[in-house]
Design goal:
The complex is a heterodimer of chains A (220) and B (511). Chain A is built from 9 helices and no strands. By secondary structure, chain A is an all-alpha fold. Chain A starts with 7 loop residues before the first helix and ends with a helix. In chain B, 62% of the residues are buried. In chain B, strand 1 and strand 2 form a beta hairpin. Chain B is mainly alpha-helical and 511 residues long. Classes of the chains: A mainly alpha (220), B mainly alpha (511). Chains A and B meet through helix 3, helix 4, helix 5, helix 6 and helix 7 of A and helix 8, helix 9, helix 17, helix 18 and helix 19 of B.
Amino acid sequence: MNGAPITMPTKLGAGVFALALAAFAMLHLQAVHQTILAVPAAIGWAAALYAVRPMVQKEKHSSLYFAFGVMAFLIFFLHETYEFTGKVRYFPLIVGWTGVALSVLDILSLTETRIGHAIHTVFGGKLEEAPGEGRKPMREIACFVAMAMSVVLIWLLGFLIASPLFVFLWMRMWGGKTLRSSLYGGVFTLAFIWVLFEWLLQYELYRGELVLWLMDMIQP
Amino acid sequence: MLDSILSMANALGTASLHFLAFKPMLYLVAGTCIGLLFGAIPGLGGTTALALLIPLTYGMDKPDAIMLMGGSMAATSTGGSVSAILLNTPGIAPNAATTFDGFPLASQGRAGEAIGAAATASAMGGLIGVISLLVVIPIAKEIVLLFSPPEFFLLAVFGLCAIAVSTGTRLLQGLIAAIFGFICAFVGFDYVSGIVRYTYGVDALWDGIKLVPALIGLFAISQMIDLAVKGGSISDDALQVKIQKVTDGIRQVFRNWSTMLVGSGIGTFIGAVPGVGGTVAAFLSYSTQVQRDPNPDVPYGKGNIRGVIAPESANNAKDGGSLIPTLAFGIPGSAETAVFLGAMVLHGLEPGPRLLFEHEDVVFTLVLTLTIACVVATLIVLALAKPMAYLTLVDAHILAPTVTVVALVGAYALQGEFGDVVIAMVFAVIGYLMIRFDYPRITFTIALVLGEITERSFFQAMGISDGSLGIFLTRTVSLILIVLCIATLLIPSFRSFMRKRKAAEAAGGAR
């Protein structure tokens, strides 16, 4: 620990993790169904997060949560893989367990411990600060919502209506552009998509559920 | 041998015919322009350009598609040098080394000279890379015959190791990203057992995760999310650059021919190693040039023209080099060639040994495309350097929504399935999270591409050996590949260990 004291949460988390690991091993040896194995795995995961968090610098906490998210996904993947038998699961199991091992190293590389520094020496580990650190989470969420909206708009209205509408709304509402330049943006996008895909390449682009429903209503 | 040469000459003749027609040449020029544009805009890059171009090629003939995409691929790094020199902002990662001397030259009012040198060095490097590809093709045929399922499996593993290591200080993250790429590759129908895996009742996933929508999301849309989150424009610097003395730059390349030749050689060699890529090639070429020239007339980093020629010749030469493993073994040498490989598969061309035997004309069409595109790209850059650089000033709130919807249309147009739009968006989020938390997307992509081949080759090898893993240890080529894998993974750790030990010794000595 490089001289740093081991905090109470770390001790407690490590203890629960050790118990969860022992329970997992015992249940695994008794060949129980993988869904039952998921219980100690989930408890162990949460305990490990609780134990490791105090050993990681505050500015790296988002990277730590992401690394634990990666591990959770890998555990879920292994759970799903054990549903299969024989050759079907052979390769995914190798990949899954290798992934878990690497994920553990990734998490440890974030800690300010001797092990963390040793992993840095061997694997390079994480950079001091990931390029995304310090970004505003609300802005990221807003961007994800906007992107999800684009898919919903396309599903409802089709590409030829949704694309210019999305560009117009983004430029006007988020970008703070003038009404005229936002309109130009929308019209340019529509012209580009129509000319390139519908006219030159002869694709019939998706028309949208709502538009198709309305067309059915008008022309049954 | 004579048969092989005659067959090559015949294929070269067939390929040449495509270049005499107007429409294919138009595609080549269009691809070159798109490549230049995407290369000049930092954050977009050649992989994004190719990912966006794939759906457009779907209805095209194979040669037309290859000319459009090959043109784009050959021109990207030439385009990237423009913003590297004018704005100190590398268009793509391999152009980063160009900024060291290119931007100081531009600051001294010698932007024209620097662009002239960069464009000419790019063209010459590209030509040397393509000639190398041409020379290696006949030998490649003999080499590929040494490869069977065990070797293909280990070659795929080696490719992944090399790529993970090339991510520099992010080896661990590179390997984890590769694991995720493999997991995505497992989705769908398993050709070994005939069972459908990890689809959760979604019919659209039966054929697996489609490469093109995934790549569009992973590279094009995720980059737009990143741009939108950061805000502003790609580059905020106002452009006040006079483009003049371009011909001086052209002359400088021929005056410093040894710099150009060494750079091209490094680029071709590094390009041929899967996953090492143009960035390493450009930096290695730059550092070699600095070591070769201990007493320069102008210090490196202060505007030495040779500091522009060395990296630019290397990062263009790598295109020809990286196509060697892509075409001969079906193992992409870079993210860009991985996307290109996906496009070839879409057009019914499976890169690998069979391509060299059965579609020689396609290989030569690509070789000629790269050659001509290098020259065309150089001419365009010399003529349009300034307006292209202005594109880097486009506001994120104009670029992000526009590129996103065009990318989504592209994802849909591929097979006319709305599910592909959703796949593109899901991978866009994954791609953004990878940018955000510094996990390299290249290893993810390569694993996604190689996943199916790796699993299939492994079980084919197991089938041959009746389930004995010994098959990987009893064949010469397999053993060489195992040693290469281990060495590739250990070398960076050894270097890092030695560096730290030296630093510790130095610190001890100081005390």
